[in-house]
Write a structure and sequence with these properties.
Length: 366
């Protein structure tokens, strides 16, 4: 139990801070609103920092003021500038986090409804009353003695059942991706052209871009500078001991070229090309591989699927399931499957592992 002077202090502070809040919002409705926050924030007994900081003892806390949570620079600066969480600052932050604290890491669009905000703040204020209890004597904190017994007892933190949990998905983890986030990820292009963005670009435009953005690694003509990948040539080498697999000699579909470049190139500066530029560069790579011969050729979404790469026909559907020996499922061998193991060659000897030019060391292994 609390000693009397501490109890008096508890009540006094709690009333002082929380009274105006309670007048405005309904903590029970706030508990429902808080479900939107619970994907990232915990509040109540044993609340921990998750994606966002725990929200116990929030009212009166300096913005960005919890030890042990890594805040954005913006939130730290707001706190250093004197921002303290109270009804007013919370209302502004919850309405539009990024307006109130420009650069905050809280990925939450905001609560547009003023009542929702007031309710959420009233709910959080319930867990802030305990903030005025002596922090060191956590176990002694008796919720029943706080000023609003009826509601406080019901919502008293302490059991997991009181904690709002996310309700989506199977495991109730994380949060739903926003439509914008999904759209930003959903950029794949299919061989039949589905997924291609609008746009166009010519071979000559692509040549300029390729020289600027790609040639330092892939060579002016896609021949590959140093040991960077070769992008052109290599036709009719696929049956050689060391086939040269390039877009022209090996790749089955042009959509892969577009998708790959748009997604991953230039190496180290991915996603820096706009859609027209990727069309132009793709057209130039067709030119480098003799698939088109006219420098004025313009590649666009409209004619994209008409272009065929030379090796397409050599890719066939996987029909192994129809083969006889797959029809009878065999028990896979999991241990001691081969009585006698002899090493017949080494990767270094086969020359697939760079050895720094020290051939002696490589051949001595056997
Ligand atoms: C997607 C995760 C996410 C959601 C949802 C979310 N927050 Fe946050 N919140 C954060 C992160 C991350 C921070 C830290 C922000 C920073 O450092 O800039 C934060 C910071 C805060 C702070 C500042 C705390 C402090 O210690 O300074 C408050 C208050 C807050 N959130 C309240 C809420 C409320 C109330 C809701 C629901 C209406 C909510 N948040 C929804 C992630 C979230
Ligand atoms: C800094 C060097 C560098 C630059 C610049 C660069 N690339 Fe690449 N590129 C690479 C590397 C490294 C790989 C292999 C990446 C891997 O296998 O994960 C690669 C792979 C590729 C491939 C796939 C090759 C294959 O056969 O697998 C294509 C196509 C490609 N780059 C196109 C481009 C285009 C187009 C540009 C210019 C917009 C560009 N690259 C700029 C380094 C670079």
């Amino acid at each position: 139990m609390l000693k009397f002077p501490e109890f008096a202090l508890t009540c006094g502070l709690a009333l002082l801070i929380a009274a105006p809040v309670e007048a405005a919002g309904d903590p029970e409705k706030g508990a429902v609103v808080f479900k939107k926050c619970a994907a990232c924030h915990q509040v109540g007994d044993g609340a921990k920092n998750r994606i966002g900081p725990h929200l116990n003892e929030l009212i009166g806390r300096t913005a960005g003021g919890l030890d042990g949570f890594k805040y954005s620079k913006a939130m730290q600066d707001a706190g250093a500038g004197g921002m303290v969480w109270d009804t007013e600052t919370l209302d502004a932050y919850l309405e539009s986090p990024r307006t109130a604290v420009k650069g905050t890491r809280m990925a939450f669009p905001g609560l547009k409804d003023a009542d929702d905000r007031a309710d959420a703040i009233a709910y959080l204020a319930e867990y802030s009353k305990q903030a005025s209890a002596p922090a060191e004597t956590k176990t002694a904190a008796a919720p029943a003695e706080s000023p609003a017994p009826s509601t406080t007892v019901e919502t008293a933190p302490g059991t997991a059942a009181n904690q709002p949990i996310p309700t989506h998905g199977v495991l109730h983890l994380g949060r739903m991706a926003t439509p914008d986030e999904v759209a930003a990820w959903d950029i794949d292009v299919r061989p039949d052209g589905v997924g291609l963005p609008a746009g166009k670009g010519t071979v000559s435009q692509g040549e300029v871009l390729f020289t600027e953005r790609c040639a330092s690694c892939h060579g002016d003509f896609g021949e590959g500078a140093g040991r960077w990948p070769v992008l052109a040539g290599g036709r009719d080498t696929l049956k050689n001991d060391r086939p040269e697999k390039t877009i022209g000699s090996y790749w089955p579909y042009l959509s892969t070229v577009y998708d790959y470049v748009r997604r991953a190139m230039p190496y180290g500066d991915a996603r820096s090309l706009n859609d027209n530029e990727v069309y132009a560069i793709t057209a130039y790579m067709l030119y480098l591989n003799d698939v088109v011969t006219d420098e004025a050729f313009e590649l666009s979404r409209a004619n994209f699927s008409d272009v065929r790469l030379p090796n397409e026909a050599n890719f066939t559907d996987d029909t192994r399931k129809q083969e006889a020996h797959y029809a009878v499922p065999a028990e896979p061998c999991m241990r001691d499957c081969k009585a006698d193991v002899t090493i017949t060659s080494r990767a270094r000897v086969l020359n697939v592992t760079p050895d720094g030019g020290n051939d002696d060391a490589a051949t001595k292994v056997d």
